[in-house]
From TrEMBL:
Function: Catalyzes the complex heterocyclic radical-mediated conversion of 6-carboxy-5,6,7,8-tetrahydropterin (CPH4) to 7-carboxy-7-deazaguanine (CDG), a step common to the biosynthetic pathways of all 7-deazapurine-containing compounds.
Residues given in the record as substrate binding sites: 26-28, 41, 89
Record's protein name: 7-carboxy-7-deazaguanine synthase
Binding annotation for S-adenosyl-L-methionine: 51-53, 91
Cofactor(s) the protein needs: Mg(2+); [4Fe-4S] cluster; S-adenosyl-L-methionine
Family designation: Belongs to the radical SAM superfamily. 7-carboxy-7-deazaguanine synthase family.
Cofactor info, note text: Binds 1 [4Fe-4S] cluster. The cluster is coordinated with 3 cysteines and an exchangeable S-adenosyl-L-methionine. Binds 1 S-adenosyl-L-methionine per subunit.
InterPro entries: 7-CO-7-deazaguanine_synth-like, Aldolase_TIM, rSAM, rSAM_sf
Source species of the chain: Methanobacterium formicicum (strain DSM 3637 / PP1)
Radical SAM core domain span: 32-247
Subunit structure: Homodimer.
Range of residues in the leader sequence: none
Length: 247
């Protein structure tokens, strides 16, 4: 994903990377719900979740090339008085960790990382530079990878790293009407058992969109919340930007 170009005078490499869209909107998911953000959506993803609403951005060739200064210029044009932070999303933003690192070292803006958490070593490059992390834990039924156990182990490593570094983070779990409370219990128990202090991380249950899928089935969300609450602090929040027809 990273393309070293020419060697600048400082001896380092200027890097460019592909971004599919940059826009200003209101954060519609998770614990920063309602915050005005500039969204930077990187291209390419190492997973393939069956519910993904940004499948175009999974193509690493999609979008346009940006260097750090051009990205800053574009973000600057989009900053409004209510600006809270940048949201680095995708695709999978951690495939662009070196680019994000260079960007935030030069332009230290407040930032949220929206990640699948599968790449803890890449996450480690950013722990001194981002203030918020939304880590989406994938369920086996999302069919994101062939080896789900390995993915879960990587995600647990990422959660432990975030807690160790004291980053304001939460886990997200996208649930479908077919998701069982047993599945939710299994994930929530695993997270609880792996971390020492459960006050350090909340679980945001995110009902899959479109919400029409939940007609007559919203009682399942209450059951899922109750089950998750046996293990972790839990919030249930749908994708609010879609309800508002915002980007
Ligand atoms: C598109 S992903 C990009 C960031 C990263 N790859 C990840 O999965 O967290 C951003 C967020 O959108 C969520 N998402 C994607 N499609 C969705 C859908 N149909 N319903 C609810 N959430 C969805 C993902 O689960 C993730 O939390
Ligand atoms: N408004 C709005 N909020 C979001 N929160 C997470 C998003 C994402 O696609 O990562 C997203 C998005 O695409 N739009
Ligand atoms: S990890 Fe994120 S971007 Fe990649 S397929 Fe899953 S939801 Fe989509
Ligand atoms: Mg989205």
């Amino acid at each position: 994903m990273l393309i070293p170009l020419k060697k600048p005078s400082n001896g380092g490499f200027e890097i460019k990377t592909r971004i599919s869209e940059i826009f200003s909107s209101i954060q519609g998911e998770g614990k920063l719900l309602g915050r005005r953000q500039v969204f930077v959506r990187f291209t390419g993803c190492n997973l393939n979740c069956n519910y993904c609403d940004t499948s175009l951005s999974r193509d690493p060739g999609y979008g346009e090339e940006f260097d750090i200064d051009a990205l800053y210029e574009k973000i600057n044009e989009l900053i409004t008085p209510d600006f809270h932070s940048i949201s680095f999303t995708g695709g999978e933003p951690l495939l662009h960790a070196d680019f994000i690192k260079e960007f935030l070292e030069k332009y230290p803006l407040p930032a949220l990382l929206e990640t699948n958490g599968s790449l803890p070593d890449e996450m480690a490059k950013l722990t001194e530079l981002v203030q918020y992390v939304s880590m989406d834990v994938k369920l086996p039924e999302h069919e994101a990878v062939s080896d789900w156990d390995d993915l879960m182990n990587q995600e647990i490593k990422s959660i432990k790293l975030l807690i160790k570094k004291g980053i304001n983070s939460y886990c997200k779990l996208v649930v479908q009407p077919s998701t069982t409370t047993d599945t939710v219990a299994c994930i929530a128990a695993r997270i609880r058992d792996e971390i020492q202090d459960t006050s350090k991380i909340s679980l945001v249950v995110q009902p899959v969109s479109p919400l029409e899928l939940w007609a007559g089935k919203t009682h399942k969300l209450l059951e899922i919340s109750e089950k998750a609450g046996e293990y972790l602090d839990v919030l249930t929040i749908p994708q609010v930007h879609k309800l508002l027809n915002l980007r």
